[in-house]
User: Fold this.
Amino acid sequence: MTLLNEVLDFWNANPCGANAVGSPMMTPQFFAEYEQHRYKTEPYILDLLANDDVAGKRVIEVGCGIGTDGVQLVKKGARYLGIDLTPMGALLTRRNILTRGLSGATLNTSVEALPLADNSVDFVYSHGVIHHTPDIDRAVAELHRVLVPGGRIHLMVYNKNSFNYWISIGILRRLGALLLLLPGGVRFASWLSSEPVENLGIHRERFRSQGLRYIFGKDWLNRNTDGAMSPLARVYSRKTAKTLLRGFTEFRFEVANINKRHLPLIGRFLPRRVEDWLGRHFGWHLHIHAVRSA
Assistant:
């Protein structure tokens, strides 16, 4: 329960993507500006959502965040329920839907204990969320329980077989930790990687106090996915995703997302065509499509 509360507190204070735009939170301009930012930097999300058959179906989005993808699902005809561990996520999504004159509901609860009836959902969508929940096996069991037999899931989890995991987090960020100890190292590393100075300062202080135990310890992955204060993150391969999703079948996988920040210096100059190719082969996002077995 302590770790779940840490996850709740972190994401409640840092709604995913909220710092990417300048308009006041909760305003129509905020939602429109963030939607434009999200699909400009990650255009493949719309392509993947276009293939999700949700019209007229009972759909839950686990970890609805700001509700940007939820709006797309509603527009596609989903009978939508956005679920978020954080009160802020549930509120933002509800406001986003209502300000657009659309229909949908939200619920502030944990995926580890869904207050939904068995066999009551046709489709589950979740983008970058379940790998942050402490008891992920229980979360998967809950998704299986609420889905009807033959119901479908579209989950995105962090991809172990990616450039970001093996090269950026595994090598470059560990080398960068040494750079942080030099005079002016934090600002130089921020210029090099586009990582916020505040995050790099936290890494520097932890490295100073813990030494190699920090950069080679179990927290290194947690602290290098969604910010230096992020309490928990996991990565999955196709094989381990199938093991995790017991009770599901008909798996189909898609890989996407090469974050240009993960490619120091050259990332900002990548042509879109090269970025897309790298994303399909070495991307950070592993999209899992599967069916609940009978």
